């Protein structure tokens, strides 16, 4: 058996940001329940960890096998690498292989953009065009995920201005230039810019909060998706307690979200209640006018499957 392999460049050409968001949205509107998704499986590897992400669907199923090597960037190599295999659910025959890191780099920003789009629309203070625009955006992070998040959010909720907050000034300046080439009003920023932000995107590898929760205005939307694990967080626990919170799935968040667990225990969150992405897409979140909104994600297997399916079917004659 010979399988087609889509490398990073081919996968990037196969689906754009707006389409990826639409694919995830349609999956949530139709047959995906995030609470039934398979958990991610971690296993130690010599230079880091193996990450296995399986999920099953009616027509297609898939598995992403990724490696996480924390020391790789210092050696000029990717931190995350891997491969995705799509299967026919009826026969379990493999259908196509794809670059796993690029698939992650596509579906993660698309998931965030989907959440931002619907959280903006759910805000009772926003009317007309304001409900569809991201407005003033602050981005924490200056790597590939930061750039792709800007592209994805701008595709579905146009950005008016963007401030880049990066640990390395050179990387932040380079990302500012890329944003300016996109036609955006862009500049280097600082944590203080959160006070004037409509949307805050946290796509860093930080293990400690990036800004003071008191800076976040009641109308703002914050997305924290960069750090994973119960011992890492990008936001102040006070923000999680104060905000209207949306997660990809409640079960996955309770297993892995360090942005939430320090704020409340699992039992307290279960009592308090969390909205998942499917519920958000179906209009079941009523945002409160005196509170900001927070989306926090850990990455889920159904997202890979939805995007991989769209790519595969787009490759068929």
Written description of the protein model:
Helix 3 (100-121) packs across helix 10. Strand 2 and strand 3 form a beta hairpin. This protein folds into 2 domains: 4-103 and 302-315, 2-Layer Sandwich (ornithine cyclodeaminase, domain 1), CATH 3.30.1780; 110-299, Rossmann fold, CATH 3.40.50. The two termini are 19 Å apart. The chain has 10 helices and 14 strands. 34% of the residues lie in helices and 24% in strands. The protein has an 8-stranded parallel sheet. The protein is of the alpha/beta class. This is Ornithine cyclodeaminase. One of its GO terms (cellular component) is cytoplasm. Keywords: Lyase. Its EC number is 4.3.1.12. It is an enzyme of class 4 (lyase).
CATH class of the largest domain: Alpha Beta
Strand order, biggest sheet?
A: 9-8-7-10-11-14-12-13
Radius of gyration: 19 Å
Order of helices and strands: EHHEEEEEHEHEHEEEHEHHEHEH
What sort of overall outline do the alpha carbons produce when their principal axes are compared? globular
Structural class: alpha/beta
Residue share in β-strands: 15-25%
Sheet having the most strands: 8 strands, parallel
Number of helices: 10
- Cα separation of the termini: 19 Å
**CATH homologous superfamily annotation of the largest domain:** NAD(P)-binding Rossmann-like Domain
Strands, total number: 14
Low-pLDDT ranges: none
Number of domains: 2
Which whole number gives the mean pLDDT? Answer: 94
Helix content: 25-40%
- CATH topology of the largest domain, anyone? Rossmann fold
CATH architecture of the largest domain: 3-Layer(aba) Sandwich
């Amino acid at each position: 058996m010979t399988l087609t392999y889509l490398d990073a460049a081919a996968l990037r050409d196969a689906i754009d940001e707006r389409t990826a968001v639409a694919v995830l949205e349609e999956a949530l509107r139709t047959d995906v329940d995030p609470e039934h998704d398979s958990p991610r499986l971690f296993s130690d590897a010599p230079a880091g960890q193996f990450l296995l992400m399986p999920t099953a669907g009616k027509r297609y199923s898939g598995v992403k096998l990724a490696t996480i090597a924390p020391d790789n960037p210092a050696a000029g190599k990717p931190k995350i690498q891997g491969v995705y295999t799509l299967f026919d659910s009826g026969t379990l025959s493999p259908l196509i292989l794809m670059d796993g890191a690029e698939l992650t780099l596509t579906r993660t920003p698309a998931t965030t953009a989907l959440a931002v789009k619907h959280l903006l629309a759910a805000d009772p203070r926003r009317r007309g065009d304001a409900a569809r625009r991201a407005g003033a955006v602050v981005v924490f992070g200056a790597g590939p995920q930061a750039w792709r998040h800007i592209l994805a959010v701008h595709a579905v909720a146009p950005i008016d201005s963007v401030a880049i907050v990066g640990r390395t000034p050179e990387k932040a300046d380079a990302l500012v230039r890329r944003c300016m080439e996109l036609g955006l009003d862009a500049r280097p920023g600082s944590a203080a810019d959160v006070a004037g932000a409509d949307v805050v995107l946290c796509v860093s590898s930080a293990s400690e909060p990036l800004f003071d929760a008191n800076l976040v205005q009641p109308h703002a939307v914050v997305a924290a998706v960069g750090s994973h694990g119960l011992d890492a967080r990008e936001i102040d626990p006070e923000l999680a307690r104060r905000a209207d919170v949306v997660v990809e799935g409640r079960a996955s968040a309770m297993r892995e979200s360090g942005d939430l667990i320090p704020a409340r225990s699992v039992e307290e969150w279960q009592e308090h209640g969390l909205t998942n992405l499917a519920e958000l897409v179906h209009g079941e979140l009523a945002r409160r006018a005196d509170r900001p909104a927070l989306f926090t994600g850990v990455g889920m297997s159904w997202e890979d499957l939805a995007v991989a399916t769209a790519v595969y079917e787009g490759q068929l004659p």
